[in-house]
Amino acid sequence: MTSALGKDLLDLESLSPDQIRLVLDTSVPFKEISERAIKKVPALRGQTIVNLFFEASTRTRISFEFAEKRLSADTVSIASSGSSVQKGETLVDTARNLEAMRIDMVVIRHGASGAARFLADRIESNVINAGDGTHEHPTQGLLDMLTLRDHFGSLEGLRVCIVGDVLHSRVARSNIWGLRKMGAEVAVCGPKSLLPRAIDEFGVTVFPRVEEAIEWAQALNVLRLQLERMTAGYIPSLREYNRVFGVTRERLDRAKREVLILHPGPMNRGVEIDSDVADGPHSVILNQVTNGVAVRMAVLYLLAGGKPELAEAAKGASGGDR
Amino acid sequence: MAEEIVELNDGTDDLIVVGIQRRGVQLADRIVRTIFEREKTKVPRGALDITLYRDDLQTVGPRPVVGPTDLPWNLDGKRVVIVDDVLYTGRTVRAALDELADFGRPSRVSLAVLVDRGGRELPIHADIVGKKLSIEAGDRVDVLVEELDGRDAVVVVRGAHT
User: Fold this and answer.
1) Active site residue A137
2) Which of A9, A88, A170, A266 is 20 to 30 Å apart from A313, CA to CA?
3) Is A117 a catalytic residue?
4) Average pLDDT per run of 10 along chain A, which is 322 residues long?
């Protein structure tokens, strides 16, 4: 029982360019549904989806909930605080108990890298990774790619630089995997202390100075400085970070061409990005949020549909009007 | 067919022609063009993709393709004509009616199809039919349109399963 994406969506590393293209193409018609007066289609009627959020999230959780509701699925969202996780129940026990109540899909956000795969290997339901530790955040990578494709028409040969805290960023990893598979050129830029030591193995260019990155790139994906994941000593101070690596109006004005600005949110205004850049004419930060709902609808739809063995059985019904 | 549509709806006031993706859209375009040539009024043309309203999502194969829906109007009080290429089981039309209801409450909905091949599984009938054919259940009727297929034709494929 596998769809075009397989049973789960855990990362972009294991998807083929063809599968990524399918998700992006399927997202396009889903955008229109959110523009309707009645923002709902019956595609996932009767499916039960559980959103398991073991880490704080506004955007991603609400975006998944909207996507699920607009496809008519029944949903519940569980945060770790206030659930039996606080009483010491393990992840797998929580999920198995949910499965005993007959659910169809689990969307999971977890602080541990690999948590989504760990769960997917142990339960029958489809699992969607909504961010696991510093590993991947595949739907964010997909919505970033959709936003870039909307603007530039194609990802092939596109020069995208990821700026900032690459070390702690699952968004960076999903972007690097996804964009490179789709033929884009990817660079990273940030203080050495916030780049993974094995960054060379990702096949990306490294810019030590943000001015060079801006000069090279057609689009910047500015990452949030993940203060909550930093134990100590990564950067001298927020002010100094802004002075050296901040994406500022002044720096962008010096570039030869316009640079598109993306940010996965939530923003630290005045740290990694200045307000007049975030709210400026070349910012597509809110387009990313809009696209997020469409991309998640596409992923849910593709994972729920297309069970080949049932398709075989249904082949009897033929003709232009099925 | 264009003439019958205008006649059935007492003119072109409040008329909207909606094609079902994919071949129904090209046919709807042609109907709008013909109405324009004869009546000199431009009737709006919408498009409906019913994939998300199907009753068989679980069975549509591993790569369900979703096409664009384009209905940027409130349909309250409008006279809507649904256009499709082939009418067979009636399930597509059932889905189209469900989807239309999410865009408003038309004063009248009618159905125009190029080919009615019989074999209905639901109580649905077309108001306007280009050609009635009696086709065996195992056979398939393909409508080809120049815009997508390079030529206009209705082809009956014997013993074909989709």
Assistant:
1) yes
2) A9
3) no
4) 85 97 94 92 93 92 97 93 79 92 96 96 96 97 98 98 95 97 97 92 94 97 85 81 94 93 95 96 97 97 68 41 53
Q: Where are the domains of chain B?
A: 2-157
- Mapping DSSP onto H, E and C, the string for B7-24 reads HHCCCCCCEEEEEECCHH
- Is A299 within 8 Å of A142 (Cβ atoms)? yes
Distance from CA of A105 to the nearest CA of B (A): 14
Q: Does A305 touch chain B (CB under 8 A)?
A: yes
* CB-neighbour burial class of residue A34 (10 A; exposed 0-12, middle 13-18, buried 19+): middle
Is A175 in contact with A212 (CB distance < 8 Å)? no
- The number of angstroms, rounded, from the C-alpha of B139 to the middle of its chain's C-alpha atoms is 20
Contact A160, A152 (CB under 8 A): no
Q: Which long-range contacts (CB under 8 A, 24 or more apart) does A215-218 make?
A: A215/A255, A215/A256, A216/A159, A216/A161, A216/A187, A217/A159, A217/A160, A217/A161, A217/A187, A217/A259, A218/A152, A218/A158, A218/A159, A218/A160, A218/A257, A218/A259, A218/A260
Q: How far away is chain B from the Cα of A296, in angstroms, using its nearest Cα?
A: 14
Which residues of chain A are within 8 Å of residue B111 when distances are taken between CB atoms?
Answer: none
Q: Tell me how crowded residue B112 is: count the other CB atoms within 10 A of its CB.
A: 25
CATH classification (class only), B2-157: alpha beta
CA-angle at A25, arms to A7 and A289, nearest 5°: 90
How far away is chain A from the Cα of B106, in angstroms, using its nearest Cα?
Answer: 15
Task: State whether the Cα torsion B83-B85-B86-B89 is positive or negative.
Answer: negative
Q: Which helix (DSSP H) or strand (DSSP E) does residue A293 occupy?
A: helix A285-304
CA distance B11 to A314: 42
- Measured between alpha carbons, how far is A102 from A49 in angstroms, rounded to an integer? 10
Domains delineated in chain A: 17-136+290-308 (3.40.50.1370), 138-288 (3.40.50.1370)
| A250's tokens | 């002044």
pLDDT at B144: 94
Residue A270 amino acid letter: G
